[in-house]
Write a structure and sequence with these properties.
- By secondary structure, the protein is an alpha/beta fold.
- The chain has one domain: NAD(P)-binding Rossmann-like Domain (Rossmann fold, 3-Layer(aba) Sandwich), CATH 3.40.50.
- The protein is built from eight helices and seven strands; from the N terminus they run βαβαβαβαβαβαααβ.
- It has a seven-stranded parallel β-sheet with strand order 3-2-1-4-5-6-7, with helices on both faces.
- Strand 4, helix 4 and strand 5 form a beta-alpha-beta unit.
- The longest helix is centred in the middle third of the chain and has 29 residues.
- The protein is globular, with a radius of gyration of 18 Å.
- It binds nicotinamide-adenine-dinucleotide.
- The site of nicotinamide-adenine-dinucleotide has 29 residues, from helix 1, helix 4 and helix 6.
- It comes from Microvirga lupini.
C-alpha cells in the first residue's frame, strides 16, 4: 500500500481503462473520485465495490467533461471530501471515425472538449492544491495517436497530439513543486471505446468486423495482441510511486511496438 492518505480523481472511470486505473490506485490505498457517464445503479455498484474491496473511500462526481465549471467542481469535491487531490488522471475520452470532409462539426467540438480541453480544466483546478502540498501526480491517458496518425480520426489524433503537448508544458511549469506530469500512450486496448468504433470503421473502409480487428486494429501492433486495461493501470500506479519521481513530461508508449515502426 503505497498511496494511503492520497486522493485520486480519475475522469472517465466508469468504464474501461479509467475504471482499471481507479481500482488499481484504490488497491494501493488511495481514496477515489470516480467520474464518467453510465447507468446510475451500475455506477453506485462500482463505487461501493471499490470501498468494500479495497477499504478506501470512493465518491462519484457526475461532472460532464464538456463543462468547465463541472470539471472544477469535481476537483473541489475531492478536496472538500478528502482534504486534497494528490493524483489526477485525465482519462475520459470518446472516438469518432469519419473522412474529414464528412466529419460532423459537433463531433469535432466534442472530441476536442472531452479528450483535450477537459484535461486543461482539471489540471488548472488541481495544480494550486498540489503546489501547496508540494506533491502531485498528473497522468493523462493519451494514445499511440498522440505520436502517429491513422486516417479518418482527425479530431481524435488532433486532441491526442494536443494532450501530449499539454503534458510537456505543464511538466515544465510544475517541475520544482514535487509534481510530475506524464502521459500514457496505449495502442489498442480492448474496451467499449474500441468495440464501438468497429462498425464505423467497417463502413469507412468497406471491411468486415474480422477484417477491422485483424487488418486495421491488430495490424498496427507488431505483437498482434490487444493491450489490457490492467497493464495500463499498472503503469499509472508506477508513475505515482517514489521510483517515478524523476519521470516527468514523458510520453510512455504501451502499444505492442506500434510506434517503433
Ligand atoms: P471507454 O469508452 O471504456 O471509457 C471512456 C470513459 O470516458 C467512460 O467512463 C465514459 O463514461 C467517459 N466519458 C465519455 N464522455 C464523457 C463526458 N462527456 N463526461 C465524463 N465522462 C465521459 O473507453 P477507454 O478505451 O477506456 O478510453 C479511456 C481513454 O483511453 C480515452 O481517453 C481513450 O482515448 C484512451 N485510449 C483508449 C485506447 C483503446 O484502445 N481503448 C487506446 C489509446 C487510448
Amino acid at each position: 500500500m503505497t498511496l494511503t492518505s492520497k486522493t485520486a480523481v480519475v475522469t472517465g472511470s466508469t468504464s474501461g481503462i479509467g475504471l482499471a486505473i481507479a481500482r488499481a490506485l484504490a488497491k494501493e490505498g488511495a481514496n477515489i473520485v470516480l467520474n464518467g457517464l453510465g447507468d446510475e445503479a451500475e455506477i453506485e455498484k462500482t463505487r461501493a465495490g471499490i470501498e468494500s474491496e479495497f477499504g478506501v473511500k470512493a465518491l462519484y462526481s457526475p461532472a460532464n467533461m464538456l463543462k468547465s465549471d463541472e470539471i472544477e467542481e469535481m476537483v473541489r469535491l475531492g478536496e472538500r471530501s478528502f482534504g486534497s487531490v494528490d493524483i489526477l488522471v485525465n482519462n475520459a475520452g470518446i472516438q469518432f471515425v469519419s473522412p474529414v470532409e464528412d466529419f460532423p462539426v459537433e463531433k469535432w467540438d466534442q472530441i476536442i472538449a472531452i479528450n483535450l480541453s477537459s484535461a486543461f480544466h482539471a489540471i488548472r483546478a488541481a495544480v494550486p492544491g498540489m503546489k501547496a502540498r508540494k506533491w502531485g501526480r498528473i497522468i493523462n491517458t493519451a494514445s499511440a495517436h498522440s505520436l502517429v496518425a491513422s486516417p479518418f480520426k482527425s479530431a481524435y489524433v488532433a486532441a491526442k497530439h494536443g494532450i501530449a503537448g499539454l503534458t510537456k508544458t505543464v511538466a515544465l511549469e510544475v517541475a520544482t513543486h514535487g509534481i510530475t506530469v506524464n502521459c500514457i500512450s496505449p495502442g489498442y486496448v480492448w474496451t467499449p471505446l474500441v468495440e464501438r468504433q468497429i462498425p464505423d470503421t467497417m463502413k469507412a473502409r468497406g471491411l468486415t468486423k474480422e477484417q477491422v480487428i485483424n487488418d486495421v486494429l491488430l495490424e498496427a501492433q507488431p505483437t498482434k495482441q490487444f493491450v489490457t486495461v490492467d497493464q495500463v493501470a499498472a503503469l499509472a500506479v508506477f508513475l505515482c510511486s517514489d521510483a517515478a519521481s524523476q519521470m516527468s513530461g514523458a510520453n510512455l508508449s504501451m502499444d505492442g511496438g506500434w510506434t517503433a515502426k
